[in-house]
Amino acid sequence: MAEDRKSILLRIPPDLWEQINRLAQSELRSTNAQMEFLLREALKRRGILEKVNEGNALRDDADQKG
After folding, report:
1. How far apart are CA 64 and CA 20, in angstroms?
2. How far, in Å, CA of 44 to CA of 46, rounded?
3. What is the H or E stretch that residue 25 is in?
4. Distance between CA atoms of 54 and 58, rounded to whole angstroms?
5. pLDDT tens across 12-58, in order?
6. Which value, in Å, is the radius of gyration of the alpha carbons in the chain?
7. What is residue 50's predicted lDDT score, i.e. its pLDDT?
8. Residues 20, 30: contact at Cβ < 8 Å?
9. What is the pLDDT of residue 63?
10. Looking at residues 56-61, what average pLDDT do you find?
């Protein structure tokens, strides 16, 4: 099954877009994938992503048992 994704409209300055686009090309990612990667990386640094993933794991376990 395809993974659910939330579509958003994001307004950023052209110079920031260009930097993200260049980084994406250098890492062989789409610009969208690069932005997702950077957001996940920032959340991990703040210790937030682990909490979100733990919550998802708990829900997944409950769904499988349900």
Report:
1. 38
2. 5
3. helix 14-26
4. 6
5. 999 999 999 999 999 999 999 999 999 999 998 988 877 666 655 44
6. 16
7. 77
8. no
9. 46
10. 47
Residues 21 and 31: beta-carbon distance below 8 Å:
yes
The domain spans of the chain are 14-65
Show the tokens assigned to 30. Answer: 């789409």
In angstroms, the CA 21 to CA 27 distance is 10
Cα 21 to Cα 23: distance, rounded to the nearest angstrom: 5
* Phi–psi pair at 2, nearest 5 degrees: -70, 145
- Strand, helix or coil for residue 36: helix
* CA 41 remoteness from chain centre: 8
| Residue in the structure block whose two tokens are 């990386």 | 41
40 near 32, Cβ under 8 Å? no
Dist. CA 39–CA 45, nearest whole Å: 10
